[in-house]
Amino acid sequence: MMKSPIEAVIELEFPNEEVARVVYESVRIEHDTVPYRRTKGEFVLDGRKIRLKFIAEDNSALRGTLNSYLRWIKVAMDSIEV
């Protein structure tokens, strides 16, 4: 029996478009270079918002991908505040 893919969509809103753009550009480097074998996804900047949409083969793959992106976003936000 084949498992159904698991999907997650997260939309993050930032204080302004500049902050969203800086965070997006920081994380996009990771998005463009990290090979994901069990997860496919989108990472989109839309004004003050960043939208993450991922489809994974299993819970572990989805959780790992989301944790990575949220951690990268937090690091980018923390570096802006310094």
UniProtKB/TrEMBL annotation:
InterPro entries: CTAG/Pcc1 (IPR015419), KEOPS_CTAG/PCC1 (IPR053619)
Pfam families: Pcc1
Highest taxon of the lineage: Archaea
Family: Belongs to the CTAG/PCC1 family.
UniProt protein name: KEOPS complex subunit Pcc1
